[in-house]
């Protein structure tokens, strides 16, 4: 291990209390996406006390988002902090640890490497819902970064893989109501149109040539059986490993099918993306190799490396990775725990989770040292 990496690891040990305090405070005060007032205020105050300049980011859309910066170097390193919780179960995705790891790593790197790098800590609300990083990426918030880093808690320590691009779609067919027994006034059955669309969509799926996921439910189908439904609604989560294939092949075909079925039934159809486009994750290979070597050097065992086409979810970190070199490894915080469960919530405040989070902080800081020394 190089001298600079040893100093970074020593600083991480000295900042262990900071790491644990962040994780504990946010875990004890779970807040839903865009409502993370306490978490955002806590992190802002901490970073100001450490000498960071703290600014609002897209305040009108995301009042709990921010950017904190320190240093005057030409290499710009971004750490991504998430801090939103889940309904009822709190931090069942471990975002309290994400905020703690990213913030602590930013403070350490800023202290030691301020003449070589400018470090930025981005407070990113609502990853579980509307994904603030989507709009932040579109607004150029991450432009100019040399690299962006984030580490996610999990049941294993992993590198590689990707995430599904996803662009959820609501399809609403609109017909004309009538009594089912009225011999003179005839309605237009929106549910019939939706059922036919649902059936034909299953056939359309057979034409998709790249890996995809298409989950769908009918959320509205009428109000009473003796009234012809004038409104029928489907919500669909539409995902692909490739953002371009999703946007330029899958969605146009689905829209065209909805329009054709609607015309056949004499209805109108509205299509609305009820959540923004989360792009597929692109893990930067060189950056990932740095991090994997560093995590291994810390004695982290049983590290898994996934192939490029492996995915088990979606994240707005993918949008960042389309703008700047980005990695999002996972750090093990417990055995056989599934995200979004009470068991994961418990692990996100446990002693083992704290121990592994500290190792992840060291690994990320060491990776920044590699960027400084060897570049990307």
Question: Could you explain how this protein is built, in words?
Answer:
- This protein folds into 2 domains: 3-163 and 279-374, Zn peptidases (Aminopeptidase), CATH 3.40.630; 165-272, Alpha-Beta Plaits (2-Layer Sandwich), CATH 3.30.70.360.
- Helix 1 runs antiparallel to helix 11, helix 6 packs antiparallel against helix 7 and helix 8 (285-297) crosses helix 11 (351-374).
- The protein has helices spanning 3-14, 16-28, 37-49, 95-113, 132-138, 190-205, 243-265, 285-297, 317-321, 342-347, 351-374, and strands spanning 53-56, 66-71, 75-81, 117-123, 147-149, 152-154, 158-160, 165-166, 169-174, 212-220, 231-240, 268-272, 304-306, 326-327, 330-332.
- The protein is built from 11 helices and 15 strands.
- It starts with a helix and ends with a helix.
- The chain has 376 residues and is α/β, with parallel strands linked by helices.
- The longest helix is centred in the last third of the chain and has 24 residues, at 351-374.
- The strands form 4 sheets. The chain has a 6-stranded mixed β-sheet.
* Structural class based on helices, strands and sheet pairing: alpha/beta
- Order of helix and strand elements from N to C terminus: HHHEEEHEHEEEEEHEEHEHEHEEHH
CATH homologous group name of the largest domain = Zn peptidases
Biggest sheet statistics: 6 strands, mixed
Q: Roughly what fraction of the amino acids lie in strands?
A: 15-25%
The total count of helices amounts to 11
Order of strands side by side in the largest beta sheet?
A: 1-2-4-3-5-14
Question: Which CATH first-tier class of the largest domain would you pick?
Answer: Alpha Beta
